[in-house]
Design goal:
Blueprint lengths: L24 H22 L3 H15 L14 H21 L3 H23 L9
Helix pairs in contact: 1-2, 1-3, 2-4, 3-4
């Protein structure tokens, strides 16, 4: 009823699989971690957190072998939204740092998560004013 397949499968390994460079898992994780940290650096610079940005930039430079480009432009995004974004990016960096056993970046990412969590919670902790109250 069915005719056997006579052509090579597209899923078969190539004859010359060594013709192009392959990256190791560690190299892929380094690239991914540097990308997450670079995105976190951009948000950190936008929040104007100089010391934290410098620490993140040091780790990006270590992973990439060259210093990162620092974020020069500013958006009109509210600080609360930027802190939420930075918290999410730090969380992603923490996951990748943990998977590659990079303690320095894991500690830095956890510290940044704590700082942004505190910044997110700060407006909620402030007492709200009632309308018409003096």
């Amino acid at each position: 009823m069915y005719e056997p397949i006579r052509t090579k499968s597209v899923h078969a390994p190539a004859d010359h699989a060594d013709d192009f460079p392959h990256r190791s898992r560690e190299e892929e994780l380094d690239i991914q971690l540097a990308g997450h940290l670079a995105a976190l650096l951009a948000v950190t610079d936008e929040l104007d957190l100089g010391a934290a940005g410098d620490r993140i930039a040091e780790q990006v430079a270590r992973l990439r072998g060259a210093p990162p480009a620092r974020h020069a432009g500013r958006t009109d995004a509210p600080a609360l939204a930027l802190h939420r974004r930075a918290h999410a990016l730090a969380g992603r960096a923490l996951v990748v740092a943990a998977s590659r056993a990079d303690t320095a970046v894991a500690i830095l990412a956890a510290e940044r998560m704590d700082a942004h969590t505190a910044a997110i919670a700060a407006p909620a902790a402030a007492p709200s004013r009632l309308v018409g109250a003096l």
